Structures are given as structure tokens and as C-alpha cells.
Amino acid sequence: MNEAIVAPLQAPVCPSEDETLVIELVFGAARSSAEVKAEIADAVPGVEVRVNSALAEDGSDRFFFAEFPQLRSLGREPESFDFARALREDLKAEEATPVLVDSISGGAVAAADEESFARFCETPRNEDLPMGWVHPLIGSVSAWQQSRGAGVTVAVIDTGYSDHTELAGSIVKAGQLNLVEGGFDAHDRFSEGFLLQPGHGTLVSSVIASRGDADPQGDTAGPGSITGSAPEASILPIRAIKSVVSFRQTTIPRAIRHAVTQGCGVIAMALGGPTRVSSVEKALREAVASGVVVVCAAGNCWPAVVFPAAYARQGLCCAVAALAADLRPWAKTGRGPAVTVSAPGENVWGAQKREASAPNDTAGASQGTTLATSLVAGIAALWVAHHGGRAALARIAEDAGTTVQAMFTRAVTAGLQKPSVWDDADDLGAGLVDAEKLLGWGLPAAIETTLAKVDTEPVQSTATVFRQHLRDYDPKAEVDFDVGLEPFAAELLWMAYRNGARRKAAESRGLETVACEEERPGLRLAAALRHRSALREFIAGS
User: Fold this and answer.
1) Superfamily designation of domain 115-446
2) CA dihedral 76, 77, 83, 87 (to 10 degrees)
């Protein structure tokens, strides 16, 4: 590899964890981590590298994460994409993509500090509503007469869990996994720092499975203060990240595979970002092929549905957008054709514990697609339990030539009508999720499902993913994306999200300076875009 490509990434001191360059490599055939490391050493001599398989514990895999401790990606993203493209050519890999720091909240990329982030990506909190106000709205009070989720385990891939009273009786002890510090204790370590959100996994778990009840007026009854949408489901916590506002997707593939092997019927991921990671898609394909229902957050303050929720277009999950109590779209919700359904996401009550010394019995109103996703994940658990569990549904899907995910997607959207306050919006899914309607809908036959069986192979190319993104958000720009630009697909996709988020933040607050601080393409990409004006405008966030 040309030294001129490596030099801009070198740092005088070892970069921090969030600054280090990480590249995902995808090969056409399986190999070992040692083999990949040796090939990288030949391509980039004298540069330290650590290589880990993305999915296989024994190291034999097609998907790898290569970490370069001496190289810095933060603030040098164009150079990181140049490096990845050069590495792909040298290693003859199918894909080579920087795995950059992600955030479920697009405002984080526009904010210079936490105060700015709060202004960009939050709306005022209101704790005047009853603690269970969402349940009559989403039909869970009636649905509980048929199913409360007993016997179904929901994997919560997040920051872990705490000993909060709202989680009493819901946490599965055996089978936990910690992919951050290592080991099998998924307790939240309450990692502190800039834009970190300790306690997020506790919040998600409580909204899914806090024990209790609720009446048609939205008042809850113990044992806790709040009640989850699946109050008899179990939670398998998997600590895969320290924060949903600042994390990488490198742990997500193994977290998904672990949830599958542990027999979970539902996977909840209230996380995401603009980075397309091939091994996450691979893990989702395996999960769906195994009969798991996957529920993901559409994202907050991003101009498009984030990954992994964006894979809903391929039948690999459900993507959930957020609504206010009056059913209007939450002002900061992610939106787009990938959204499956919407659910309340503003001022939804959940367990609160943001530091180790905080009380174990505090609840509060929170906001975001995190809450909407958690509610729908619980409703998915009601549905799985109602039909006899994951194994029973997997057999039915196999006989019908479809997937459990496709059956759930068809059933959860059946009979829904878009609220009038949406003004016929087509980017918030089929409507407000309704647990009662869901359980009253029979299992759809293969002919009724919109998606056929999902193959575990092949994983899409990033060029294919970006082409779908253009088709969804700017079909005119798709014309500009030809074969010559396919090597730049990952960079184009990342820039479109980042610049769109900056402009969205600026428009919502009138902050012109934010809009001006847009990401710029590297010299090679800029040259390739010179005569492609529609695509240039799209990635600029216009």
C-alpha cells in the first residue's frame, strides 16, 4: 500500500478507543484471523494490527474486524475510506469498510457538547401522564387477556441491566453475555463520559417486561410503578455497548448470534447509526432464518432510518418510529420507507438508573424511538407466546415457505389505519401498533406474506444497500450512481446520513453554522462526483 494513504491516519500518540481506525473486511471464502493478520502485515508493513472474526469464536470466518491502534479515524474519515479501499484491493477482499463511531441520535454528530446535543435531539419532558398511559393506546390491556408473554425470552442488546426493582423477576441469569468488558455478567457498568448513556438497557428492559398491570385509564398496578408491554416475558440482557449515543457495531454480530443460540424468541435493538456493517446483516439473516423476530429503532434526528433498522426493507427486522401521545409523529423520529409501524415514543414511563449510586426504584418519562421499539418488542413477545413460542412458529413458517419475521410483519401491520394527524404520511409505517388486533389476526399463509424465505447467504454488497437508500430517499440521484462509483458506496452512504443530520439539526433550531460544518468527500470521491450533480446534492444533505 502506498505510504501516502497511511500517513494521514498516523497519530503522534495512540488514539483513544473511539478514535482508533477499525476496518471491517469481508472475504469470499472463510479463513482464519491469523491468515488475515498476515495478509494485512504484508500490505501495510510496520503498522500494528489486531484482527478478530466478527462472528466465529474459533476465528474461521468470512467477516473480520481489523483494528489499527496506531491509526486514527476520528476527524480523518475521508482518509479512512481511502485506506479501506486500498486495503480491499491489496487483500482482494469483497468489502473493506471503516466501522466508525455510531449514534442512534443524529443530533450527536451536529453537537459540539452535551448541552447542544440535548437541544438538537430532545423535546420537553412531561411526567403528568399516568404511568401506563400507553397501554390503552396500543391495545395491550386487551391483548393481555390472551397473552402476557409468558415463556418467551427477549434478548435486549444494549448497555446491560441493573438491579432496579422494575426488573425484578424478569431477568434471565443463565446465558448472559458481556461483550464490552468480557465474561458472562451483563450488568451495566455505568460507563461515564462524553455523550455516554448508562442505564439505557435498564430502561429498555423495563418498558418491555416490567411486572404489573394497567387498566383502561392507563393507571398501573404493582409490583412495580410501571408495566411493560409483555409483563410476563423474560429478558436476556446482552451488554454489547457502553452507550447508544457513542458506540461501534463491532459487538453486534456476536450479540445477535448469541441471542439466537440461547433460544430467544425476540431480539430488541434500540440502537443504530449510519454505518453499514456487513456482518450485522449476516447475523440478522441467521436470526431470521432461525425463527427469531427482530425489532429495531428507526433512529432519532437522522434524515433516514438507521442501521440495523434499515434492513427491514430486506425482511430482516421491523423498524419502529416514534409518536407523541396525540399520535402525531414525535418531532425527532427517524422516518422512511423502511419503517414498519409506529408506537408512542415521547413521555413514555420507564425505569431510571443512570449511575451506580442512583436509587433502584426510580421511574421517569423518557423519549425517543428507544421507547417505541421497546413497546413493540414486548408486543412481539405477546405474539410469539400466543402462537406457542419460537420453535412452533419456526415449524409453521418452514411449512409455509416463509419466515417468522415475515409472518409477524404481515400480522402486526394488518388492519392498521394511519391516524388522520399523519396527513397521509407514507414514512411512518402502516400505522399505530395495536396489540389487540395483532393477536386477533390469524397466522398468515405464505401467499399472504410480502416476503419469502430469507437466505443466510449472500449478504448484500454495500453498493446494493446504497442503491436501495437512493431509491428510497432520492430516486433522481440513483441515476448518478453507476458502476464506477460502487467502490465509494460506504463513504457516500455515511456522508448522506451525517450531512442530513446536520442540516436537520440546523433547520430545527435555525443554526446555520451547524449546516455549514458538513462532511466533505475525500479527493478521490470528489473527483468521481465532479459531473454527478444530483448525487453531490444528495450527499450534501439537501
Assistant:
1) Peptidase S8/S53 domain (3.40.50.200)
2) 140
